[in-house]
Amino acid sequence: MTEPGTPAGEPSLPPPPPPIPPEARTTGGPVPRSADEALEIGRNHFPPVGAPGGPTGLFVHEFDEGYLIHPGRPLPDDPSAPPAQPGGSNVVIAKEDGEVTFLPNFPPPEAVKLYHRLRGNRRG
């Protein structure tokens, strides 16, 4: 299907997604004063350490704007096999206002870069 004004034979783009409703946006929470406090806040967003399917540990990576909380996972029996449960996420807790942001399960340097891009786009 083509939109009016679109050359014949060229597909139209899908409509943009609806805006995120205000109640679904993450708001500020407790503001961590240290990596230890950030870890305690972050624990609420992961299954308990050692639970079936849960992380083997939670780790904190502090950076200029926040604290990245990322889970440790057990090594697979067969490293060449695809993961049994792909996906997962990291959590960033902002130093400024305690805002919690969920990011893909990227290594810390890449997750921090993505966070900077997202915050820059939101503020800009």
TrEMBL record:
- Comp. bias intervals (Pro residues): 12-22
Origin: domain of life: Bacteria
Q: Where is this region: Disordered?
A: 1-35
Q: Where is the composition biased (Low complexity)?
A: 1-11
Descriptive protein name = Uncharacterized protein
Ranked from the top, the taxonomy reads: Bacteria, Bacillati, Actinomycetota, Actinomycetes, Kitasatosporales
